[in-house]
Structure formats: structure tokens, C-alpha cells
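Entry:
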Amino acid sequence: MAAITMSGLTKVYPGGVRALDALDLTIADGEFFALLGPSGCGKTTLLRTIAGLEVATGGTVAIGERDVTTLQPGRRDVAMVFQDYALFPHMSVRDNIAYPLRIKKVGRSARAAKATETAEELGLAALLERRPGQLSGGQQQRVALARAMACHPQVFLLDEPLSNLDARMRLEARTFLKRLQRELGVTTVFVTHDQSEALALADRIAVMEGGRIRQVGTPVEVFRRPANTFVAGFIGSTPMNLLDAEVVNGRLAVAGVRLDLPESAHGQVADGESVVYGVRPEYLDYSAAPVEGALSGRVVVVEHLGSHSLVSLDLPVPDGDGPGEGPGGGLQVVVPEGEEPAPGDTGWVRPRPGRALLYRDGELVGAPSPAAVAA
């Protein structure tokens, strides 16, 4: 197995489109690493550049101790699982799994034995004589993984491997994939646009935007302490609440209410500064009665999500410019099942201690999080 090291990695397409912009990134040996970001952010280009399917315009890629920047894909000792699995429809499961070994000139009997062994590890032994068209989506995914495993690569590269599965099968496949990677210990890089998938599977996550890495960290670090407002608004099933605020007499003026500064921002901001107050919907408490130090607003939408509901409130826009005044806006809060308000109700929302964050010029204020590694 091997680590992957990228230094100054750049990819510019014809016409000046900069898909990767001087990336520096190290993925540890045996790590399960996710590349996450919106469409067009460069995550698939980065994966294909590691694989050698895209040629870097600048910078280097090393796998272990080898600089593989100019090597052909077949010489990099990586295996890639594509979004559509790319199985050969005219071949049996056995032959699909054995195909990489055939390319490497491994003998027929050795290929068949290895294909059978790998299929048994993935629960495919009873399907070896079937063709891809006779398999379910989950079975096809496991065949694609088995084909990647058969030649014992140093690195697995997975391009949205679960996106073609239905919701229930995705959950099952997610658990299976994480267990498999732990057992094999192979350095694995996977691309996804699904935050819940990245948070559930990865040891660490790189959040990308416009060909750059905006933050690298564990799922807990990236979720709890986004390094900037882009990550804060992108990560999570519901984005972080980001409210315009002003520092007034050592406190925050938000939607006409005075709030204490987050602990991490003490001594870091000055009176009169315009900042952004951030707190996740999951880290807010809702009350139907007035609460000191809480934001109040009118409930406009209640979304039932099973064991909890997502409540959206409109905050007031105060008149005047006196102390304590501040912009209004929208706010979302997660409420337990059975405690949902009704649209039109007035509610009070207060952040839990230590859960609020402050951003200035788009960047997190306070001691840098261990997760924060900006490009």
C-alpha cells in the first residue's frame, strides 16, 4: 500500500479552463479519503489525474516513493471503479473480474483461481457465470470492486461508486464498502457530491471549489468547524445558518438581538466590525415561549423528516441604527419529532453553548481548527 502526494498539481484545459489550481495534498497510506464538492469543482479531474487518465499541466503526483506524473495508467498500480461500473456486457462475472489479470499476462488457470477467490470474498461466488445484464445494481457494483481488487493495487480510485443505486441499496453498499476498505487497508480515494456519503465513509475529506481545496479534515472537524463560509454552506444535509451581524460593545447585534460572542472569537474582533454569525440547525434549541438571549421569528415552513423536523423561521428586520440593531434573515432549526410548531407561530431559538462560530471576510475567526487546511 502507499501514500499519495500531490505538489503544485495543475490541470488547464484548452481555452484556459483551470480545473486544478496548484493543489498540494497528501493522502496517507491506508486512508479512506473523500473528494467532495459541487459539480465542476475539479474533484473528478483530480481523481483522473491521479489515475493517469488526465495529463497534469503542472506539478507532480507521487504514489509511495514513485513519481508517477508522467507514467501511463497501467504502470501506476492503481485500480479505478467508475460511476457506471464499466463492466463488459458480453463477459461473465468471472471473466470481468479476471480481465485486469489477463492484461497483465497472468495464466488462464491462475486468473480463474484469483477471480473465484475474490468473488467469494465479496459474496459473488454464486454469480460467476452470469453476465452483467443479469445482475442487480448492487451486484454490478460488487463485481466492479472485485475486478479492482483482483490485481491487488496500491490505490483504489472510486468515482461516485454508489450514485447508480437506489436509496436503500446505497445505505447497504456504503456499510459494505467501508467494511471492505478496513479489511483490505488499501489507500482509497473516492469522489462524491453527496455530503452524507462522505461524512459516513471517509477518514478525511477535502472540500473543493473552483479547482482549489477549501478545507481538509476529518468528517467531525469539517462538520463542526467549517474553515470558511463556502464549506459551512456546503457541508451537511442542511447548510449552516449564516447571519449578518455587527460587533457592538463586545457583543453581537443579530436581527435586533444582542448575543454573546462565540468563545473562539473573544479578543479577535473589534467594535463596529461586520461579521457573519454561523450555527448549524442541529445545534439550535427551539422554544415556543420567550427565552433570554434567543433570536425570535415567525415559523414559515415545517419539513417533516421522520424522527425530527426542519423548521424555517423568518427573523425580523429591525428599523433604525441604534445599539443592538442588526440585519434580519432566515433561520433553520432541527426540532425533535412531536415538538414541531405550526406555520405562523412565533418561536425563540438559542444556540447551544460552544456551538456558534464567527466568520470575517468569509474565513473562520479564532484559533484555527486542526481541520482547516486552505489551498
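The chain has two domains: 4-228, 231-364.
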